[in-house]
Amino acid sequence: MVRSLSRKISQLYDDTLAPSGLKGTQFSLLAQARVRRGQEPLSVSALAQRLNTDRTTMTRNLRTLEQAGLIALVPGKDARSRCVVLTPDGDARYRQALGLWKQAQAEVRALCGGDQIAALEQLVGQLLPRLAHVQEVA
């Protein structure tokens, strides 16, 4: 049931974001890169950890955004690491999609109700740390 709900909500976000040319996962990556503007950029590994995604999946998702010119992967402090930087085109696409993202958020909130969303967020906040040992399959 949880997996079905996850897929349905992901599809709702993807459908709502479609006019921007982004999927929900791509918007989330651009948002994380944008938050870091003016700060040291996040490494690919740190970004994967922040979004609870394995590094292989993260690298594949970032490659698509890099090929589209929306992010750049630059050398990190450690020569072996690469960091994610939002490009001007990526920032423009993020801003274009932000209203659509908010629309999807509002639709989910309306479908579930504010109290249910708050309860779900609390439950997810409790469960994610307990599941930290589980490795995502790429």
From TrEMBL:
CDD domains: HTH_ARSR
Biological process per Gene Ontology, one example term: response to stress
Pfam families named among the record's database cross-references: HTH_20 (PF12840)
Record keyword Mitochondrion present: no
GO MF annotations in UniProt: DNA binding; DNA-binding transcription factor activity
Domain spans labelled HTH marR-type: 1-129
Keywords, alphabetical: DNA-binding
Name the UniProt record assigns to this protein: DNA-binding transcriptional repressor MarR
Annotated organism of origin: Comamonas aquatica
Lineage, top ranks: Bacteria, Pseudomonadati, Pseudomonadota, Betaproteobacteria, Burkholderiales
